[in-house]
Amino acid sequence: MKLWSISTTVRNPARLRDFLKILKQLEGLRFDIKNQMKYQILLIQNRLYKPMKIPTEYKDLFDDYNSNISYNVAKKIFNLQNYNDPPMRGRQSANPLNKLGFCIARESRGKIVITELGNLYLKGEYDLSYVFLKSMLKLQFPNRWSSEFSEKDGFNITPFIAVLHFINNANNKFGNYGLTQNEFSLFVPSLINYNLIDVYLNKLEEFRKAKDKAKFILEFGKWYYKTKKPTEKQINNFFEYGDNIMRYFRMTKYFRVTTTTFGADWRINLEPLRKIETDYLLKNYTGESISFKSDDEFYKYLYDIKQPEIPLDKEKDLYKIIKSIKDNIATFREENKISLSEKDILLLKTKYKDLLFEELRIFTNKLRDLYIDLKRRKEKVSLIKNIESIKKIRDILKDSKVLRKLSPERFEKLMTDALRILNDEIMIKPNYPVDDNGEPISHASGNQGDIECYYKSFNKICEVTLDQTNKQWIRETQPVMRHLREFETKFIEIISYCLFIAPVVHVDTAYHFWISIKLGYDGKEQRIIPITTKQFAILLDLVLELLSDDKMIKHTDMQKLYDNIISTAKRSKGHSDWLNSIEKEINEWKGTVLNAN
């Protein structure tokens, strides 16, 4: 028996958009053998797929993100893989895009078509959760893409809906706890028929009562795979597929995932702030797969962005959602004594029933953003007064072993919190996508700075990485300098800095930033400050010392530190000297701030 999955080819859903961008280049051409291979070669050329066998002569080129790979070189690398079925690689890469309704790229269907949903995904401005919700709702087994998940094998499921029912029924039966990582991984990829939901609720109860969880997992594997001894791979697949499915489902924002500090262990539940939408889906859809009379009917369904119908597509339901969000905002404000800005008040006073439909959707998302912003304000107040929380963040930043356990999005969240502790910002805006609770869904995309920070006298972006290898300079320096230049261009009337933070700043990374300070990037000098996480922890030590006297660091204090480090770079004869001087600069500045206070 097979498990169902969304994509083992593209494990991170955030990467799908780049895959779709490349396929867009081939739109209108037949997805024949020639273009299947061409698609895979283009993915290699754009560094979206890294083959196992890269000739020595091209390894440095492939790792150097500042250099372009020519199509001919990518083709040569592709051919050197000696695949048994080379076109199959292109088909596999397009498979998740097909499966999720973003395109129709099938040899049997003629020309490649990017669907309306796919084109919406490619737009600069789009509601990511809406895109993924629509795609998840179109995913079903069996379907006309593949014969391997057939009705004959027991498949009859629209997974997203069936899992909503499964978790909702589990909450009703056992309490509103959602599912642990192990429970989700065992019972979701193996739920192949919506009629089995009650059977799986019994299995869930057995698992929770089992004293020996490992033994239960083994016995469940025997039962599911119909074998006396499941292989290690079969058991591992439960958890690999479960983690992959969770990541895709979470992009819809219909699920709330809570994680440990490091993001390794998680628990999943229905998102309480989407109750109206969830209740609608539970009431109107069973989780049964849709039967299509013909391929054309199936493809028409895939192409139609209006199908299946959801509350966000109907004006009267949007009114209910808006009222619910406004009620949540009012309750949250009252409980936490949070004041509103004039801009917030104007938003809440909007006469939304006078808005056009698309404007109504935009307004709904603005309300959700306001709720998240209010949560961030509360977190800010809690953080700057909570000595234990500050110490915890400081200690994590000092511990390289702990940092290695963090996922990229958890590290970005950690640094966002650390920046909020630091001083009197106007706004600190992380660019990672978040759920309705403000928690990161994935790390920030590569076309912008990780975190944007706005202050009265300057702005800055903060770029963070966990990369400690000698490839750090290759992967980080060019994007960082480009992001800063784009940010500088947006705010030409105010000084902009970039704070680059990593567990270790590689000396070659420092070289490129030193050059951008002394000689400029694309004709203009930049202000980039590279510091380690341990050096950032020194700033939090200062916060703790000032807190004892009920004082805090001012943003003007931070600007002086940045300017000191930039001035030292300009005076230094070499980048190594500059890099080695930064910690001394921080400690001297710390002493100055303490004396001034």
Written overview of the protein:
With 597 residues, this protein is of the alpha+beta class. It folds into four domains: 13-123, no CATH class; 159-303, Orthogonal Bundle (Arc Repressor Mutant, subunit A); 314-378; 386-596, Restriction Endonuclease, CATH 3.40.91. Helices cover 56% and strands 7% of the residues. It is built from 25 helices and ten strands. It has helices at 16-24, 33-45, 56-63, 71-79, 86-99, 116-122, 128-138, 159-174, 181-187, 197-209, 213-225, 232-250, 275-284, 295-303, 315-336, 342-348, 357-385, 387-398, 400-405, 408-422, 472-490, 507-518, 533-547, 555-571, 575-596, and strands at residues 103-104, 113-114, 179-180, 255-259, 266-270, 427-430, 451-454, 459-464, 496-502, 528-532. The strands form three sheets. Strands 6-7-8-9-10 form a five-stranded mixed β-sheet, with helices on both faces. A three-stranded antiparallel β-sheet has the order 3-5-4. The protein has a two-stranded antiparallel sheet with strand order 1-2. β9, α22 and β10 form a beta-alpha-beta unit. α8 packs across α10 (197-209) and α9 crosses α12. The chain is globular and about 75 Å long. The relative contact order is 0.07. The mean pLDDT is 91.
